[in-house]
């Protein structure tokens, strides 16, 4: 355990992969929103982290998704301000093809295993595609404030275009991955 005065305690250890490889692994909370991810993920990269994977919550934007389903983000709509400090807004925030492919493969294997060994089959699905990263949960997601009607239409357009989910961190993580390689 690596304690943090900011409340972002970290855990480091080793993972014995099924192929016999031993992998160094660390787990840390990134907090909420792009600015917090910017700080924590950049510190991890500067300390030598090679691959960053974020596990968190998101609001489904497609009717095919249910509570408990898994969304694997392939790219992120940059509807926040922090990533603009790193690259032009017109440049997309994209996930690593190798990491996305590995995550989809692992999800598919787990789904097939659960289908085979669980009475009634797996009770979840996974999907891969774009997600929406926003600054304000209350304004964008719940349409609070004077721009409520505009937020409603904006989110409808993203849904129509196939955006899978809305959250507050992925665009920053992908941007840092692109900037730092």
From TrEMBL:
GO terms for biological process: purine nucleoside catabolic process. GO terms for cellular component: cytosol. Residues 4-180 form the Nucleoside phosphorylase domain. GO terms for molecular function: purine-nucleoside phosphorylase activity. Pfam families: PNP_UDP_1. InterPro entries: Nucleoside_phosphorylase_d, Nucleoside_phosphorylase_sf. This is Nucleoside phosphorylase domain-containing protein. It comes from Perkinsus chesapeaki. The lineage of its organism: Eukaryota, Sar, Alveolata, Perkinsozoa, Perkinsea.
């Amino acid at each position: 355990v690596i304690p943090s005065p900011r409340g972002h305690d970290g855990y480091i250890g080793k993972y014995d992969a099924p192929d016999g490889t031993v992998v160094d692994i660390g787990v840390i909370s990134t907090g909420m929103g792009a600015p917090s991810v910017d700080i924590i993920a950049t510190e991890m990269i500067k300390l030598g982290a090679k691959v960053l994977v974020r596990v968190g919550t998101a609001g489904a934007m497609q009717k095919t998704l249910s509570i408990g389903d898994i969304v694997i983000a392939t790219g992120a709509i940059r509807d926040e301000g922090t990533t603009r400090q790193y690259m032009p807004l017109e440049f997309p925030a994209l996930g690593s093809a190798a990491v996305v492919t590995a995550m989809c493969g692992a999800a598919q294997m787990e789904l097939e295993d659960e289908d085979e060994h669980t009475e009634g089959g797996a009770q979840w699905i996974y999907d891969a595609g774009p997600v929406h990263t926003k600054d304000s949960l209350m304004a964008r997601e719940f349409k609070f404030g004077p721009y409520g009607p505009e937020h409603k239409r904006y989110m409808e357009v993203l849904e129509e275009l196939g955006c899978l989910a809305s959250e507050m961190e992925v665009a920053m993580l992908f941007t840092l991955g692109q900037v730092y390689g």
